[in-house]
């Protein structure tokens, strides 16, 4: 039977009811056991303590600390960055990914490309972000099933030039493999199906600062090529945050993409100008 971790009651009482990142520390204080984020740190930590599935983490925890942030964007970015840097034992998400792959459409050809060979932040015509090649292939097959696309033409299955593929015989391919459909029509359906998964390349000339406000407080989050460089309290301090950007960060991209392209850009400051 699950026993409530009474030894952590005092730790929770000292936590703020504000936005930020929190840390569960074990006997080894150098590396946290778990890093999380919330718009209400105390409430979120209390929910951990009531969860029987986290009994092992809670039994190993000795201290709980936090870093308050101005808003949710700052908490999301900081959590993602710290998890990658410190690799806490109980964090399964947000860990550093050595290599990503994506689908690239180029000259009517579809191929799978990798982030260690291409700069995903600057490369156009990329679709989807996958951890493994098999996931990219499965994604493309799913689209082919819905849109009657040809896996031979997409270079996923082997076939004889000019001959109907096996899927065409089953009514699952519209026939680009045997001349019953034009390559242009086939490509048009593919592009339309992939549109929602298109990877936005970095459209700014260099670093930007995203301004976040909470009442009288301000924070400026500095981003370069979809990589989080840090947060500063003023724009002038943000301009000093500069070090070589790491590889394309999928988590940073997911956190910021909607905010940069689908919301007002009044809160975005260009640090590097052409």
Total beta strands: 10
What is the element string, with H for helices and E for strands?
HEEHHEHEEEHHHEEEHHE
Our count of helices gives 9
Mean of residue pLDDT values: 92
Count structural domains. 3
* Shape, principal axes of CA atoms: globular
Largest sheet: 4 strands, antiparallel
Give the N-terminus to C-terminus distance in angstroms. Answer: 63 Å
Share of residues in helices: 25-40%
Strand content: 15-25%
Placed side by side, the strands forming the largest sheet appear as 9-8-7-10
* Helix-and-strand structural type: alpha+beta
Give the C-alpha Rg.
Answer: 24 Å
- Enumerate the spans where pLDDT stays under 50 for 5 or more consecutive residues: none
Please characterize this protein's 3D structure.
There is one protein chain. The chain is of the alpha+beta class. It has a four-stranded antiparallel β-sheet. It has three domains: 6-86, 3-Layer(aba) Sandwich (GIY-YIG endonuclease); 101-197, no CATH class; 208-270, no CATH class. It contains nine helices and ten strands.
Keywords:
274 residues; alpha+beta; GIY-YIG endonuclease; 4-stranded antiparallel β-sheet; 3-stranded antiparallel β-sheet; 9 helices; 30% helix; 21% strand
């Amino acid at each position: 039977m699950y026993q409530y971790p009474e030894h952590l009651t005092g730790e929770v009482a000292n936590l703020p009811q504000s936005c930020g990142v929190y840390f569960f520390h074990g006997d080894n204080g150098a590396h946290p056991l778990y890093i999380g984020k919330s718009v209400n740190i105390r409430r979120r930590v209390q929910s951990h303590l009531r969860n029987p599935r986290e009994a092992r983490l809670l039994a190993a925890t000795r201290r709980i600390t936090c870093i308050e942030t101005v808003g949710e964007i700052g908490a999301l970015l900081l959590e993602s960055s710290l998890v990658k840097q410190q690799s806490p034992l109980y964090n399964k998400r947000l860990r550093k990914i050595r290599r990503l792959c994506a689908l690239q459409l180029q000259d009517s050809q579809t191929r799978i490309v990798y982030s260690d060979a291409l700069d995903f932040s600057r490369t156009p015509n990329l679709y989807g972000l996958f951890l493994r090649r098999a996931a990219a292939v499965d994604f493309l097959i799913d689209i082919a099933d819905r849109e009657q696309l040809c896996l031979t033409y997409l270079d996923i299955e082997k076939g004889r030039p000019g001959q109907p593929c096996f899927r065409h015989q089953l009514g699952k391919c519209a026939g680009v493999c045997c001349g019953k459909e034009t390559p242009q029509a086939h490509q048009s359906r593919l592009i339309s199906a992939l549109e929602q998964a298109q990877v936005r390349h970095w459209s700014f000339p260099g670093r930007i600062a995203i301004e976040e406000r909470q009442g009288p407080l301000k924070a400026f989050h500095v981003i370069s090529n979809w990589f989080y460089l840090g947060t500063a309290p003023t724009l002038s301090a943000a301009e000093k945050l500069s070090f070589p950007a790491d590889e394309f960060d999928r988590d940073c991209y997911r956190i910021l993409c909607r905010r940069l392209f689908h919301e007002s850009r009044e809160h975005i400051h260009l640090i590097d100008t052409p």
